[in-house]
């Protein structure tokens, strides 16, 4: 006779063999969320081997795959995407949604590669993190009816669900902080092909136009270091027209380069030249003076995306929707809260 038929095993026996706590075993057997899929499967395997009676539980949610732009997580924006991934992981665990991550170059995110990656992990839902799907991939996603969430991205045609910071309104609010301080000639240093960044440009231009000011958009190539490029571009712009008195920057890395440039020119910050960044990355707090910026809750973006995927699985025919999270002004020494004289 087998060991399983001669002894009545308890949850403590399963816990001992699986190397987990009894409470974890209890939660798995009760089909509670918040346990990683690997641990869940291990406990169920041990329980089955021991002949422990298992109750029929709810159907396991479909597995999902997050494809993350490799240039984002391996470059200067790695800290930004780290927060998003944290939110994705924690919320997927809380909702019991099996979840995998793969890095992919945005240029190589073709229908064939994406399909193969999804099949390799058995995923039915897809998170595109920092990736704007190209024409071919978009068509395949629509035709295959793949549940997809754009994370830190949006689709101009609203074919797919998406969640992002409020890029237009966030940029408008950031620029308005400068106009409220009396600035009327404002630079915007930006770069990137992404729709989210184009929305920030629109918000900047709208805010300056609302006060009849002069706006200049400077597009950086991002071929080397964002701060270094912003430093050089700022020096050139102020040499051409020294009457600009402020800059709104697409992110805090760019803002650091602007701060270094105006300091090098002998301008007093913020009295002679004011700066507002975006994202509230660690470098904003390290700068001297601290950068005024706009805080993006990256973890909340990831959590929101998982909730949207859960809804999409349950309501596949619902219209696509885009959720924009508000960004929060962060005070810093690069912006005078009072009016300019």
From TrEMBL:
Q: Which GO terms describe its molecular function?
A: DNA-binding transcription factor activity; transcription cis-regulatory region binding
Does the keyword Transferase belong to this entry?
no
From which domain of life does this come?
Bacteria
Residues forming coiled coils: none
Which SMART domains does the entry mention? HTH_LACI
PROSITE patterns listed in its UniProt record: HTH_LACI_2
Q: Keywords in alphabetical order, please.
A: DNA-binding, Plasmid, Repressor, Transcription, Transcription regulation
**Entries under Pfam families matching the protein:** LacI (PF00356), Peripla_BP_3 (PF13377)
Q: Which InterPro entries match?
A: HTH_LacI, LacI/GalR-like_sensor, Lambda_DNA-bd_dom_sf, Peripla_BP_I
Q: What is this protein called?
A: LacI family transcriptional regulator
Q: Which organism is it from?
A: Sinorhizobium mexicanum
